[in-house]
Write a structure and sequence with these properties.
- The chain has about 450 residues and is an all-alpha fold.
- Helices cover about 70% and strands about 0% of the residues.
- A two-stranded antiparallel ribbon has the order 1-2.
- Strand 1 and strand 2 form a beta hairpin.
- The longest helix has 29 residues.
- The mean pLDDT is about 80.
Length: about 450
């Protein structure tokens, strides 16, 4: 009986592992995990039993200190590093590095590589940044909240594409490609906004990047020669006043896309390894034996080096960014205590602090889709771009509403725009409410306008 019970337990475990793998491969999985972490963060920040521990954990210092008994050496690195700063200034560097790799790939050989492919999503992304910034400014001009104009300008690609995946074939494939390209262009714009919030110049960091660029031009394609300078550049950015996450984007642009081995070398070497593998004498069923394993390792190494470093890093980092870094960011940044009565008045206007709530909410729900839609309409009517194949203006408006899901980038810009905790928290609540409203509105319009299994005209 124990024998069957043990094997039944193993089968159940295999079934669970298989189910987790299938879930992680779904395009909407990242959005579901993020949404779950938002709910957990809100509970942790508001339950009496956990609220104090939650905030204390985020404020815990992580700096390492070198100290001698005589007090000669007293060095702390990195200074001022807390758990929250480690997440926002450390882990998020990996997120921005991954975003930078994706942007570079799309510009070099993807959806933004030609004028015909890039013009519509880029123009729409520009309109989708200008309009919400204008809406926010109308509510907050001349107030303490005016600096937060960049908060409603971003689109969270994980949530937006996740919702498009869940609605299936109600949305033409061309519009899914349009929203993905728009979100990528949007990310680039959000990165520029972050740079505006942290202007500065660090000559040493720039010198290191120039050296890395020169190394790239000379044809260096070994990963270690890029990752070590990346850590150095991060440290220099951290202490410079320029937000350290920008070092991730800067390094991503310097990572070579060209493979170490070309096609002819790969084919010739692969044929040689195939012949060597087939010539190895085997004894019995011992496969692979030691010689065969050595040959297979060389095949793996050859295959890896025949793919560009940029592609390899993007693929390797993707699951960690989606299922580890972004959920941790959500846990650390979405936890807003709403016990204070003032947070229930975030949509009211004050002459001193304006109305960050109305600026962010209407910027995401109204400004973002209208900016995307009007910019796309003008570019198509002016003959600058072509309408996505099989799409209608109604469906484009519905998809544009999903562009109002700000979340990750919006939360990040919110934390940079203000130093007042009350303003930051009000912004976070408005971001969560605005992103949720944009998601519901976009999904509802897709279901109303969409026709499954039929092309829209």
């Amino acid at each position: 009986m124990g024998h069957f019970t043990r094997f039944g337990w193993i089968r159940r475990m295999r079934s669970v592992v298989f189910g987790v793998r299938r879930f992680m491969q779904a395009p909407w999985a990242g959005g579901v995990v993020l949404l779950t972490c938002v709910a957990i963060a809100m509970l942790l920040a508001n339950l009496p039993a956990t609220a104090l521990y939650y905030h204390h954990l985020l404020e815990t210092e992580l700096s390492a200190m070198v100290h001698s008994p005589e007090g000669v050496i007293d060095w702390i690195f990195p200074r001022g590093m807390t758990v929250e700063k480690f997440i926002n200034d450390g882990l998020m560097v990996v997120f921005f590095f991954s975003v930078g790799l994706e942007i570079k790939r799309e510009i070099v050989c993807g959806r933004l590589s030609t004028r015909q492919q890039a013009i519509l999503p880029v123009v729409a992304a520009l309109g989708g940044m200008l309009a919400p910034a204008l809406v926010f400014t109308l509510f907050n001009h001349g107030t303490a909240a005016a600096n937060g104009w960049g908060i409603p300008t971003a689109t969270d690609i994980a949530f937006a594409v996740g919702i498009l995946s869940m609605v299936g074939d109600r949305v033409p494939v061309s519009l899914k490609i349009f929203l993905t390209a728009l979100a990528i262009a949007d990310d680039l714009g959000a990165i520029l906004v972050i740079a505006l919030f942290r202007l500065g110049c660090l000559l040493v960091a720039l010198a290191v990047m120039v050296l890395v660029y020169g190394m790239k031009r000379l044809g260096e394609k070994r990963m270690g020669f890029y990752l070590v300078p990346a850590v150095i550049i991060w440290g220099l950015f951290y202490y410079s006043g320029v937000h350290s996450t920008l070092s991730g984007v800067a390094m991503a642009m310097l990572i070579p896309m060209e493979p170490r081995y070309g096609k002819e070398y790969f084919v010739r070497k692969m044929a040689s390894l195939k012949g060597a593998f087939e010539s190895i004498a085997t004894s019995g069923d011992d496969f692979p034996d030691e010689e065969q394993r050595a040959c297979l390792r060389r095949v793996r190494q050859l295959s890896s080096r025949s793919v560009g470093m940029s592609y390899r890093l993007e693929e390797a980092l993707a699951p960690y960014v989606t299922f580890l870094i972004m959920p941790i960011f959500a846990l650390a940044n979405a936890g807003v205590g709403i016990a204070s009565p003032e947070y229930f008045r975030i949509f009211t206007h004050s002459p001193e602090i304006g109305s960050i709530g109305m600026g962010v909410f209407f910027g995401l729900v109204v400004g973002k889709p209208l900016g995307i839609f009007l910019a796309a309409w003008i570019s198509v009517k002016a003959g600058l771009a072509a309408m996505p194949e099989g799409a209608s203006w109604r469906m484009l408006l519905a998809v544009a509403c999903l562009g109002g899901i700000g979340f990750t980038m919006s939360l990040f810009v919110d934390s940079l725009a203000f130093s007042d905790v009350a303003l930051i928290d009000r912004g976070k609540i408005a971001i969560l409410m605005g992103s949720a409203a944009a998601a519901v509105l976009g999904t509802l319009l897709i279901w109303i306008f969409g026709k499954p299994n039929k092309q829209l005209t």
